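queue> pop job 88
queue> type: inverse folding (structure -> sequence)
queue> payload:
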């Protein structure tokens, strides 16, 4: 692996920045226990990259230790990348069935090379059992191929039965290929159709035509795998189209069918949780708050099943739903939930959760008229180390939202000071998103710097001309209705 290529250099930085606290701790424990005395370069480089996400830290390290020896520096990067990868594999070994199957196959190959054939066969049999649990035909194909090869050396292994299993797997794989072909046609048709004006009926009619034309197997078209894949394709399309009415109708119907036909089990439980999450969110978007809260209760009940399988993964969706819904019907309750979450060690250890808590506390406190608390929370989010890793568009919006809150507090000096800081930051970093909101920032500057209490006609006209510049945020949603705020200020 050659890390001299820019992409590979980027991958090492990306790898280190994506490590969790547990993974970092484990990496350092292993490195410190195996490192030769005085050999600190890999750990030094690791810390430089981790503490400086941009290229400055790495460049400082290179200038300090390897300024005149680039080849040794790239060898060090290669070695560090490989060590982190190996340690991650060991740390997460046996974490799920996929890991276990692959590890068992590797062990079988290892003992085959050692000519310990009985051990090799033992691990292949264990791998087969777990691959069957996963219903993973690719793994089974590898395992059966290894078993057939093993039969050359072990007379007790009858290859006939293994070959029959392999044929059955090949037949099933052919069905899966057909399944994927039909899904590809469905996705193509959805993209071409773009606007399914008749909603669910039109989707079902189109789907029936595609399945009838391209699927030659009733078994394939009725299988859970096929129906789940079709569901994923259509629900994703409706979500991207922001057609929440059709999304709720479609997911509700599909969920009911899956429940009635007993298609949900432990292995498909996450599909169930995802469907309920879609129902929660689409109900909310369709202004059906009580229904959304009912689905939220259902989501929590299902999260407790199968010994809390996927509980921690969906916990944030559960609280997100509560906060969203109560922000409409009972804002103080939503604030109380967020404040309790902020005290939870489980939540504040996750950067995304911190962002979720502080952002929503800022928005809800502002809506409730508690501007000091709104300012406190948005300032806390901007000062948090996670802020540097946020999407640029969100960063610029948070800067703007903070200044609007100061304006509402009539702290115009702080508004102008903040505007100066943001413009200085934009000049240094060339924030593209800043330019999208430049009309808003300039309008705010004009309003905060005015000498008269009232807004005269000339200033109002100038501000409205700036605000008429279209802000195209692409697929990124706005965290706050800025235009409504400006129009409200100008009317007042």
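queue> result:
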């Amino acid at each position: 692996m050659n890390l001299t290529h820019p992409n590979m250099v980027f991958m090492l930085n990306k790898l280190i920045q994506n490590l969790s606290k547990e993974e970092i701790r484990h990496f350092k424990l292993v490195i410190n226990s195996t490192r030769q005395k005085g050999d600190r370069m890999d750990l030094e480089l690791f810390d430089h990259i981790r503490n400086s996400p941009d290229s400055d830290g790495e460049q400082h390290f290179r200038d300090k230790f390897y300024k005149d020896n680039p080849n040794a520096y790239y060898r060090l990067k290669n070695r560090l990348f490989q060590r982190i990868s190996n340690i991650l594999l060991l740390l997460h070994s046996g974490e799920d069935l996929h890991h276990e199957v692959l590890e068992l196959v590797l062990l079988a190959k290892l003992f085959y090379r050692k000519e310990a054939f009985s051990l090799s066969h033992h691990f292949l049999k264990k791998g087969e059992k777990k691959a069957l649990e996963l219903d993973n035909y690719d793994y089974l194909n590898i395992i059966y191929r290894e078993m057939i090869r093993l039969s050359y050396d072990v007379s007790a292994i009858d290859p006939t039965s293994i070959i029959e299993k392999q044929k059955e797997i090949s037949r099933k794989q052919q069905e899966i290929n057909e399944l994927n072909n039909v899904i590809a046609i469905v996705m193509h048709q959805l993209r071409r159709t773009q606007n399914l004006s008749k909603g669910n009926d039109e989707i079902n009619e189109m789907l029936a035509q595609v399945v009838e034309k391209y699927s030659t197997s009733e078994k394939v078209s009725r299988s859970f795998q096929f129906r789940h894949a079709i569901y994923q394709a259509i629900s994703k399309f409706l979500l991207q189209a922001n057609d929440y009415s059709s999304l709720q109708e479609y997911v509700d119907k599909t969920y009911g069918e899956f429940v009635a036909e007993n298609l949900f089990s432990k292995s498909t439980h996450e599909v169930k949780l995802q469907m309920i999450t879609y129902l929660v969110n689409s109900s909310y978007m369709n202004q059906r708050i009580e229904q959304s809260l009912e689905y939220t209760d259902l989501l929590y009940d299902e999260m407790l099943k199968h010994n809390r399988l996927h509980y921690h993964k969906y916990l944030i969706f559960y609280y997100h739903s509560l906060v969203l819904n109560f922000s409409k019907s009972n804002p103080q309750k939503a604030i109380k939930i967020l404040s309790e979450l902020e005290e939870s060690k489980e939540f504040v250890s996750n950067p995304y959760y911190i962002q979720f808590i502080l952002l929503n506390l800022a928005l809800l406190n502002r809506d409730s008229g508690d501007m000091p608390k709104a300012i406190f929370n948005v300032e806390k989010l901007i000062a948090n180390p996670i802020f540097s890793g946020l999407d640029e568009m969100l960063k610029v919006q948070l800067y703007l939202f903070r200044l609007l809150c100061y304006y509402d507090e009539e702290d115009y000096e702080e508004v102008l000071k903040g505007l100066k800081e943001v413009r200085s930051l934009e000049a240094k970093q060339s924030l593209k998103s800043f330019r999208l909101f430049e009309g808003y920032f300039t309008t705010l500057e004009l309003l905060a710097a005015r000498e008269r209490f009232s807004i005269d006609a000339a200033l109002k006209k100038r501000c409205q001309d700036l605000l008429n510049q279209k802000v195209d945020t692409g697929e990124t949603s706005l965290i706050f209705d800025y235009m409504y705020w400006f129009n409200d200020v100008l009317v007042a």
